[in-house]
Amino acid sequence: MKNMGLFCAAVIAALFVFSPRAIAQNSDKDKDSKNEKPAEKCDAASTKEEVSTTDHTIRIGGQTIPYKATASTTLLKNDKGDATGLLYSVAYTRTDVKDLSMRPISFLYNGGPGSATMWLHMGAFGPRRVQTVNGQFTPPAPY
């Protein structure tokens, strides 16, 4: 289970590392390394990896489904091994499956300025949904 969480975090981190913006920034570094600032470091006390796992059940269509929710942080480091940040991830895993290799897997990414990742968990893909007073579809911007 922990390995799957780490794998998910590695995949998400790879998306950042190999993004067009990161590649462009790396090529810019080669051109002008004289004006380069030293990489910022994170406070060591606030950059520890943590994992929290809880067991749950949910009833869907008359069937009770047990699952495990795992929330974790993965420490990100620079080339020198200095901590540069934490990557937060959540995994929901069905626990009554005998052959895990036959289970589908989804990687979802969202969040940042303007939209919290909470909506993926509580509004779309998590095992539980928030009940809203007005469940009408919200049209796209501008509002």
Residue share in β-strands: 25-35%
What is the oligomer described by this structure? single chain
Strand order in the largest sheet: 1-2-3
Task: Let me know the largest β-sheet.
Answer: 3 strands, antiparallel
Shape: flat
Distance between the termini: 42 Å
What number is the mean pLDDT? 75
**Helix-strand category:** alpha+beta
List low-pLDDT spans.
13-24
Number of strand elements? 3
Number of helices: 3
Radius of gyration: 20 Å
Give a quick summary of the entry.
It is built from three helices and three strands. Helix content is 24%, strand content 26%.
What keywords describe this structure?
alpha+beta; 3 strands; 24% helix; 3 helices
Task: Write up what this structure looks like.
The chain is α+β, with helices and mostly antiparallel strands and 143 residues long. The chain has a domain at 2-28 and 52-100. It is 24% helix and 26% strand. It is built from 3 helices and 3 strands; from the N terminus they run ααβββα. It has a 3-stranded antiparallel sheet, with helices on one face. β1 and β2 form a beta hairpin.
Describe the secondary structure blueprint for this structure.
Layout: H1 2-17, H2 20-31, E1 51-60, E2 63-77, E3 83-94, H3 118-124
Antiparallel strand pairs: 1-2, 2-3
